[in-house]
Write a structure and sequence with these properties.
By secondary structure, the protein is mainly beta. 0% of the residues lie in helices and 64% in strands.
Length: 116
């Protein structure tokens, strides 16, 4: 979906919000975050964020965290983790389940890459 300023944003069916975040300070402390929500109060949403590091063979997950909540309330994760020199990103994955535990939607979004 292209908004008025030409910014393209993903449109999901059951997920109303999915935002990853990553920053790394001069000491190597990575601040990893994720934010998600769903529309329906009878749906459960699980958020997982993965801190990933780039290598010659591709991206690999070095740490992950998860949280679960009920719609339409926001589920968020904020974690800090010390890293060594390299290039990193955060992958935020949201999974929405109905009242019977059936998976309705799964989506992932990557943060911008950060080199430390």
């Amino acid at each position: 979906n292209a908004g008025t300023q030409g910014v393209i944003t993903p449109q999901f069916t059951y997920i109303s919000l999915l935002i990853p975040g990553l920053s790394i300070n001069s000491s190597g402390k990575a601040s990893c975050s994720g934010l998600t929500s769903t529309y329906n109060s009878s749906h459960t949403i699980k958020l997982t964020i993965e801190l990933q590091k780039s290598s010659a063979s591709g991206w690999g997950t070095i740490k992950s965290w998860s949280a679960t909540g009920l719609g339409p309330y926001t589920v968020d994760i904020y974690k800090e983790y010390y890293v060594v020199r390299g290039t990193y990103r955060v992958c935020a994955t949201a999974k929405v389940y109905n009242a019977y535990g059936t998976l309705l939607e799964s989506q992932s979004i990557y943060s911008n890459t950060v080199t430390y």
